[in-house]
Amino acid sequence: MEETSALTLEGSRCTVCDTVAFPASVMCSRCATPTAVALSLSTQGTLWAYTIQRFAPKSPPYVPPVGGFRPFAVGYVELPEGIKIEAIIECERFDELDGAPVSLISTSPVPRFAVGTAHPASNVGVSQ
Ligand SMILES: [Zn+2]
Asked: Measured in angstroms, how far is the CA atom of residue 20 from the centroid of ligand 1?
């Protein structure tokens, strides 16, 4: 899949039972029919649950940032489509995370959201 300038997570929706999946899949994980179609997921959501990664993950595959490891938040972002996406969460302070609104800021190598609603990705249309 080629990279585009539009920041979006590509999921899928089952045309039989409406189950939304991420990453996208043709086979529905709920009703096991090969009837899912592509769906661009919302770039705004709510942090549903999280934890703080306080030690460096095993490397590889983890690549420490320039300047070395710093604790970071990882959690599940609940999207309006009714799916929870596991993601890295960027924030100023860990005590602002509970139920925080978050916005997609990166999709590669893993989804990454930042606390807040004012990010460039917010003007990406939601196709339903
Ligand atoms: Zn289904």
From this structure: 8
State how far the Cα of 113 lies from the Cα of 115, in Å rounded to an integer.
7
Tell me the whole-structure pTM to 2 decimals. Answer: 0.82
Task: Look up tokens 């990279």; give the residue.
Answer: 3
List, for residues 73-85, the tens digit of each pLDDT value: 999 999 999 999 9
82: Cβ contacts below 8 Å, ≥ 6 apart: 20
15 Cα: distance to centroid of ligand 1 (angstroms): 7
Cβ–Cβ under 8 Å, residues 91 and 37: no
Half-sphere exposure (CA, 13 Å, Cβ side) for 38?
A: 5
Statement: residue 119 has pLDDT above 60: no
Report every protein residue that has its C-beta within 5 angstroms of ion ligand 1: 14, 16-17, 19, 28, 30-31
Query: Which CATH code fits 42-120?
Result: 2.40.50.840
In the reported structure, the alpha carbon of residue 70 is separated from the centroid of ligand 1 by a whole-number distance in angstroms of 40
